[in-house]
Amino acid sequence: MVDILHRIGVKGSASAEVFAALTTTEGLAGWWTRDVSGGSGVGEVVAFRFPPVGGFDMRVLESEPGRRVVWEVVDGPPEWVGTRVSWDVRESDGWTVVLFAHSGWAEPVEFMHHCSTKWATFLMSLKGFVESGTGAPAPGDVVVSDWH
Amino acid sequence: MVDILHRIGVKGSASAEVFAALTTTEGLAGWWTRDVSGGSGVGEVVAFRFPPVGGFDMRVLESEPGRRVVWEVVDGPPEWVGTRVSWDVRESDGWTVVLFAHSGWAEPVEFMHHCSTKWATFLMSLKGFVESGTGAPAPGDVVVSDWH
To answer: Which residues are CB-contacts of A142 (< 8 A; sequence separation ≥ 6)?
Structure first.
């Protein structure tokens, strides 16, 4: 099992705003994809779509306000199904630190390399969205390669 | 042992340009840090500095023109020493694909999360540097957090 790991810092005491960006349709649409729907409470499924290439369905496993969110991928690319995406948030010295993990990949396939880079650009999008209100969600997301 | 993995695509048939960006002082200064010195042939050591916080010394283990470069970290933060950084380059359908690995981390510490995100921004800097001549090397690099 291999994991994708990232860490960003959002300026200011923004754990509530980061949590909202991870747990509301409006927030998620501000940095990941405009095409998001479904519920975001524990046990509910959030559907993220990236037309025309498909998307991911995430079941919310944990949702602790201002601190932690965990999703399990229940539908999407075969490499993703069964993996987990976790977000740990804390405030420290005027920053809001977000530790990210997309864990449980079966193999370090080339698609995992791609997703690691792509997650970084979406995390930077999340940072920009919370800091300034301007993210780069799909379909206006950052192009990292031929795989978009 | 855990690894940081990334994948970018540079537009065009640019494997020679990517290789030059990884193996010449001028190239490395265009996307990673302006403060780079040393030799870049196999067995030589390249010194990357990020004033005022330190840097990394990399011994070149492999250098296969247009295809592959491998460095071993011989000095720097303790978590980095002994790890390896590899770059695999190939051209495919009008793109130059770069597979990156920073492998051999002893533990998935928080600093590794940070380095993963930071590597992604430097890979995007490499992409920009080769595609358009404009990278974002230190000290003008992208700030991802309180750890810079």
So the answer is: A121, A124, A125, A136, B124
Q: Does the beta-carbon distance from B4 to A116 stay under 8 Å?
A: yes
Instruction: Tell me how far the alpha carbon of residue A109 is from its chain's centroid.
Output: 20
- The CATH code for residues B2-132 is 3.30.530.20
Q: Dump pLDDT digits (tens) for A1-33.
A: 789 999 999 999 999 999 999 999 999 999 999
Q: Which residues of B touch A (CB under 8 A)?
A: 2-9, 92-95, 97, 99-101, 108, 110, 112-114, 116-117, 120-121, 123-124, 127, 142, 144-147
Establish whether the linkage from the previous residue to A77 is cis, with ω within 30° of 0.
Answer: no
pTM of the model: 0.97
CA distance B50 to chain A (A): 19
- Would the ipTM clear 0.90, i.e. be above it? yes
Instruction: Quote the CA–CA distance of A110 and B97 in Å, as a whole number.
Output: 11
pLDDT of A53 higher than 90: no
Give CA–CA dist B63/A122, Å, rounded: 32
Describe the strand order of the beta sheet including B55-64 as a list of residue ranges.
B2-11, B95-105, B84-92, B68-75, B55-64, B45-49, B35-38
Confidence label for A115 from pLDDT (cuts 50, 70 and 90): very high
The CB density around residue B33, as the number of other CB atoms within 10 Å, is: 21
